[in-house]
Amino acid sequence: MITHASLLTAWFAVAVATFPFLFTATAPYGKFVRAGWGPFIDGNVGWATQEVVSPIAFWLGHTRGDAIFDDLTHRTPASGYARALPWVFTAHYVYRALIYPATRRMSRTTAATVCAAVGFNVINGVLIGAELAHGSAKPNDAQIIAGAAIMACGAALNIWYDTLLARLRAQRASGAYVVPTGGLFNLVACPHYLGESIEWIGFAILTAPARSTAVFAFWTFANLFPRAVATRAYYRRRFGARAFPDRIRAMIPFIA
């Protein structure tokens, strides 16, 4: 059997290696979908399939982590705070797996993308679920307030700008292609990615000193930042530097 510590270490190493790789190979879905990655799949179906795996894997790890990992043999008695954290994670994926694909038309994806996302969500979900079931004492109030505020702000940014992009896609379907502008779109190409990264940083603070949630926050950035860079380059090619000047960064305002 494997230990949670060894799998998490390997998982972090994969994230570190994946980060530079994704600057050269953008995942084939959405505007970057292309042939050569297996059959094409309806975007809404593919998205729901890959995202619903995450809470299932999380609860598997949360309830059976001591049977999966050799080094998780003692379950810490859960405080009310510790019992609430799994539902914070689950709420995010209720939105991502059910509400998100049900409220917008999504571009097609590929079998390779869905399979890779399923694999990621299985490993990530089990690691986080297992560790939160064997967690430490409740953190101090300042940590809870900071983590909750950061996570809430990130989630709000993510949902707001995802919704704006969905409206633009609907307009494009009727013949009008609209450049995303206004708000943080005047500073970055992908404010929705920025929001999701902030959201999981907040969750990592809420759950500290859990290591798996910190690794997930890094994974989120490692996956989304290269895609934001590719998205900015795509917009500049399509609309020109006048529509997307240098001041509009990829994901981090004023920086990158």
UniProtKB/TrEMBL annotation:
Membrane topology: Multi-pass membrane protein
Gene Ontology BP, a term: brassinosteroid homeostasis
Keywords: Membrane, Transmembrane, Transmembrane helix
Transmembrane segments: 80-99, 111-130, 142-161, 173-194, 200-222
Pfam families: Steroid_dh (PF02544)
Species name: Ostreococcus lucimarinus (strain CCE9901)
Any one GO molecular function term: 3-oxo-5-alpha-steroid 4-dehydrogenase (NADP+) activity
GO cellular component: membrane
Record-annotated 3-oxo-5-alpha-steroid 4-dehydrogenase C-terminal domain positions: 111-255
Protein name: 3-oxo-5-alpha-steroid 4-dehydrogenase C-terminal domain-containing protein
Primary location: membrane
Compartment(s): Membrane
Oxidoreductase found in the keyword field: no
